[in-house]
Amino acid sequence: MESNNKSETAGKVLRCKAAISRIPGEPLVIEDIEVDPPKAWEIRIKILCTSLCHTDITFWKMKAGPAAVFPRIFGHEAVGVVESVGEHVEEFTAGDTVLPVFLPNCNECSDCESQKSNICSIFENNFSPEMPRDGTSRFKDMNGEILHHFLWVSSFSEYTVVDVTHAVKITPEIPVDKACLLGCGVSTGIGAAWKVADVEEGSTVAIFGLGPVGLAVAEGARQRGALKIIAVDLNPEKFDIGKKFGVTDFVNPETCGEKSVSEVIKELTNGVLTIALSASGCIINARSFSK
């Protein structure tokens, strides 16, 4: 089904600017590029705001291996407005405010329908540098050279094309500089506390690593009513920041002396630690810290 709210540029190749990574580890280059119209089950998005994730930097530095694909357009934390839609797209229309997301959700397979999984079993999370359905790119530079996608988002471009399984409609009332963060780190951390760990009121939580995801874990634990939130990190400068997100206690492994981290946590919690999470949102067996 085609949208009744078509834009004037629907179906046309768009010229816009993008930050292109041509050589790993070297500065990105702002260039004019061409963005193809969306194919079936795809939408083309005008990016309003994007942010930088450490994953972008990790892949930017890669000089070898199957994931080291260049030239490419990085970026996967963003918010934008749908410019046009391809055939069979019913979920979105031009003008919708959307988050492009790197984890697909087909809404049909048993994993996507489950409340305990978010790894789609139909669309594999294989870090392909192209579009998920046909393995081709929607980007070209002005010399006609193919520019590769990144995590099916590529938000370091004024316009991008994503599959409908990689987009979520949101209210336009959310400020764009905040909304762009919801596509990765914030949702991962808060989701870990709310859905993965299911933190209960009065719990004692330990978080290993106080980066953006770890801070979001702390915020999620605070929202769920955790009584004590312990952060473990080597960087003491993060401690003041952590307090703003609900952290109550800090453990720096370098200042524990002869005691192990688990011993220090045991002292802080009187031997009762409800749950421990890594900065990636994975649950660590809390029993090992409460023995």
Explain this structure:
This protein is of the alpha+beta class and about 290 residues long. Helices cover about 20% and strands about 25% of the residues. The strands form 3 sheets. The protein has a 5-stranded antiparallel beta sheet with strand order 8-3-4-5-9. It has a 5-stranded mixed beta sheet with strand order 12-11-10-13-14, sandwiched between helices. β6 and β7 form a beta hairpin. The longest helix has 12 residues, at about 185-195.
Report a brief summary of the structure.
The protein has 8 helices and 14 strands.
Order of helical and strand elements: EEEHEEHEEEEHHEHEHEHEEH
- Biggest sheet, open or closed, and with what strands and sense? 5 strands, antiparallel
Catalogue the unreliable spans.
Answer: none
| Anisotropy-based shape | elongated
Helix content: 10-25%
Spatial order of strands in the largest sheet: 8-3-4-5-9
Q: Quote the beta fraction.
A: 15-25%
Rg, nearest Å = 21 Å
Task: Tell me how many strands there are.
Answer: 14
- Overall pLDDT, averaged? 90
Distance separating the two termini: 59 Å
User: Helix/strand/pairing class, anyone?
Assistant: alpha+beta
> What is the tally of helical segments?
8
Question: What's the structural blueprint in terms of helices and strands?
Answer:
Elements: E1 14-20, E2 29-35, E3 42-51, H1 54-61, E4 77-85, E5 97-100, H2 110-113, E6 139-141, E7 146-147, E8 159-163, E9 167-169, H3 176-179, H4 185-196, E10 204-208, H5 212-223, E11 228-232, H6 238-243, E12 249-251, H7 261-269, E13 275-278, E14 283-284, H8 287-290
Parallel strand pairs: 10-11, 10-13, 11-12
Antiparallel strand pairs: 1-2, 2-6, 3-4, 3-8, 4-5, 5-9, 6-7, 13-14
Helix pairs in contact: 4-5
